[in-house]
Design a protein that fits this description.
Oligomer: single chain
Radius of gyration: 16 Å
Number of helices: 3
Helix content: 10-25%
Strand order of the largest sheet: 1-4-3-2
Shape: globular
Number of strands: 8
Order of helices and strands: EHEEEHEHEEE
Largest sheet: 4 strands, mixed
Distance between the termini: 26 Å
């Protein structure tokens, strides 16, 4: 019997404007771009994992013979992704986001301890920086 997965390798968000998404994740958040395939997707390295940004209209198209057999997938509407940050990094992230004119929707302390900063990417996805201790990690 297989054991439980050790970690998440990929996380996906969806954005119809990949140019805006690419600028945001590379320039504002500083993630390293791995690859871009036209108007279908842009991928970024994030720690030991990968952040996939897909155009939902493009990923809904079934693959054709000779293409990689990746099944159609996608979501419509905003998603959520949380980035791990150390407590001492959170004020720096808040300042960096504010300087980039990204609205901070919430800056909160969790009852069990830990702080989160919530904001949105250009596609409306809800993003968060938080301390891992909110999950006991």
């Amino acid at each position: 019997m297989a054991k439980a997965p050790a970690q998440i390798l990929e996380s996906a968000l969806y954005a119809s404007d990949l140019d805006a998404a690419e600028r945001f994740y590379a320039d504002v958040l500083g993630l390293e771009k791995i690859a871009r395939a036209g108007n279908r997707h842009v991928f970024f390295k994030c720690g030991p994992g990968v952040l996939l940004i897909f155009n939902p209209a493009e990923t809904a198209i079934p693959y054709k013979k000779g293409q990689l057999p990746v099944p159609p997938h996608g979501a419509h509407g905003p998603g959520h992704l949380c980035f791990k940050a150390e407590a001492e990094e959170l004020d720096g992230w808040r300042d960096r986001l504010t300087a980039a004119r990204v609205e901070i929707e919430s800056d909160m302390e969790w009852p069990q301890g830990g702080r989160s900063i919530y904001f949105r990417d250009p596609a409306g996805n809800s993003l968060e920086f938080t301390e891992a201790r909110i999950w006991g990690l």
